[in-house]
Design a protein that fits this description.
Blueprint (H helix, E strand, L loop, with lengths): L1 H27 L3 H24 L5 H31 L13
Helix pairs in contact: 1-2, 2-3
Length: 104
């Protein structure tokens, strides 16, 4: 039983670390497109790791299936909303960020 709790804790901490990385990306990246990339990719991975950690603690198969269903719905919602935000920004004329060229 202790090994399942250890695995659960490891996955939960890793998921929290990915959520922290996504939040830092949201605050540090320069434009809406790179911020969306950080949120859509990193937060989905963090949520997947947290779901995996919670699956080790699930009391039964029905609860585990409900947790997986929640994860799948969150994945679908995240990708759809990210696409809509990026399309709206592009339609409003928000240009993607370009790095400044360095002169040698």
């Amino acid at each position: 039983m202790a090994i399942l709790e250890l695995l659960s804790s490891i996955f939960l901490v890793m998921g929290a670390a990915f959520f922290m990385a996504g939040t830092i990306g949201l605050l540090r990246f320069p434009d809406v497109y790179t911020r969306l990339h950080a949120l859509a990719k990193v937060d989905n991975l963090g949520l997947g790791l947290i779901i995996l950690g919670l699956l080790f603690q699930a009391p039964g198969l029905t609860v585990a299936l409900k947790i997986i269903l929640i994860w799948l719905l969150a994945l679908a919602a995240s990708s759809a909303v990210s696409f809509l935000i990026a399309r709206r920004a592009l339609n409003r004329g928000v240009a993607p960020w370009k790095a400044k060229e360095q002169k040698i």
